[in-house]
């Protein structure tokens, strides 16, 4: 029975993620934690696996799939009082180019059910070592390779 309710939550979270990406919405709404409790890791793993199973059918493109996965997982888990944070790492800040990056979740500053990126052997926290800031449990990172752009935008 829990799968039925979770199915609709995943669908609505997926639609919210599409709205953020395609409608130029500026704010990522993070569900507020209602209480803090210690949850069983088997329950969390069950929710994550079922969410990923559903997302495999919904995400038909490889573009932005890390955003969809991270955003939907974050919404599902935070509704169940798991204090995960969404991380967004940027590879370039040049406005003339498409911004590239990666999204992932952390729990207590540790990677949370994160797979190795296909284009590198490094984990996201190694790819994006420079902290840009955070807002409402969404944390922004930068890889530092385009340091001149970072200095230009911060000035």
Summarize the structure.
The chain is an alpha+beta fold. The chain is 43% helix and 17% strand. It is globular, with a radius of gyration of 16 Å.
Question: How would you characterize the overall build of this protein?
Answer:
The chain has 155 residues and is of the alpha+beta class. Helix content is 43%, strand content 17%. It has helices spanning 2-22, 41-58, 65-79, 124-127, 147-154; strands at 84-90, 101-107, 110-111, 130-135, 138-142. A hairpin with a 2-residue loop joins strand 4 (130-135) and strand 5 (138-142). The longest helix has 21 residues, at 2-22. It is globular, with a radius of gyration of 16 Å. The relative contact order is 0.14. Mean pLDDT is 76; it is low at 151-155.
- What is the radius of gyration? 16 Å
Helix content: 40-55%
Q: Which blocks of ≥5 consecutive residues have pLDDT under 50? A: 151-155
Largest sheet: 5 strands, mixed
Q: Count of helices?
A: 5
Portion in beta strands: 15-25%
SSE run = HHHEEEHEEH
What's the overall geometry? Answer: globular
Characteristic terms for this protein:
43% helix; globular; single chain; alpha+beta; disordered C terminus; 5 helices; 5-stranded mixed β-sheet; 155 residues
Write the layout of secondary structure elements.
Layout: H1 2-22, H2 41-58, H3 65-79, E1 84-90, E2 101-107, E3 110-111, H4 124-127, E4 130-135, E5 138-142, H5 147-154
Parallel strand pairs: 1-5
Antiparallel strand pairs: 1-2, 2-3, 4-5
Helix pairs in contact: 1-2, 1-3, 2-3
